[in-house]
Each structure stands twice: as structure tokens, then as C-alpha cells.
Amino acid sequence: MDEPEAHDFPAAAAYLTLVASDAEVTDLVEAMKAAPTTHQKAKDILRASGLPALDVANPHVDSDLKKIAAGRPLSPVLMVRGDLTAGRPAVVADGYHRVCASYHTDENTDIPVRLVDRPS
After folding, report:
1. Domain boundaries of the chain, sorted by first residue
2. Which of 5, 89, 95, 114 is surrounded by the fewest CB atoms within 10 Å?
């Protein structure tokens, strides 16, 4: 999908409140709503975030694998860009299970992503 589903933004905000201030979360989510949808490879998203690929037995990964098998498009992943010089990984704010399902389908799968920078 080119556009995130309506529930993706509140899900991203819920996660981000654990790692950022309320003001930053508001700015990041608004930026995600306005950001263009680009495409990144599943393996690169996992590497940039430092997250492991969840197993196919994970119920949410399994659900997304079934969607892929049925030819149903997945919502874009919502991410915050990391900082290489500061040693800060990218943050998958919403869509970790979708990334993992895509990775298990083909690690070189191009995944739609809304990638934003941290507020300055």
C-alpha cells in the first residue's frame, strides 16, 4: 500500500511515547503523515534498526505472511531515521511484524516506508 492505514499512526505514537517526549511524538507522527512513501529492502530495515527477524511462528508475522500469500498489500512501515555518527539505530515505530513477514518471504523485498527525521 502507498498509504498507511488509519490505525498505524496511533500505534506508532503508542510505541514512540516509550522512547520520546510527548512533543517529539506529536512532531514525528505529523511528519509521518506528510512524508512521502519510499521503498527499502526488508533486510536493510532490520539491519538499520538492529532488530532481529521474528520467527514465522509469531502470530502477527504469520497473519502478515497469509496476507502476502493472498496477494493483499501491506501498509507502509513507519520509521524514524537513525544516526550513524551517534550510534543510534533507526526506529521502527509501526510495522515490525510486516517487515519480518516480508523478510521471510524474500529478504530483498522492497517495502513501502514512511521515514522521518527526529525533530531538531
Report:
1. 8-116
2. 5
Cα distance between residue 74 and residue 91, in whole Å: 19
Give the tens place of pLDDT for each residue, 18-46: 999 999 999 999 999 999 999 999 999 99
CA-nearest of 41, 19, 17 to 113 is: 41
Which residue in 13, 8, 66 sits closest to 37, CA to CA?
8
What's residue 71's pLDDT? Answer: 95
Confidence check: pLDDT of 103 > 80:
yes
Q: How many CB atoms lie within 10 A of CB 66?
A: 11
* 7 CB-contact burial (10 Å; exposed 0-12 / middle 13-18 / buried 19+): exposed
| One-letter amino acid of 87 | G
Instruction: Please state whether the predicted TM-score (pTM) of the whole model is above 0.70.
Output: yes
Record: fold of 8-116: 3.90.1530
DSSP-derived letter for residue 114 is E
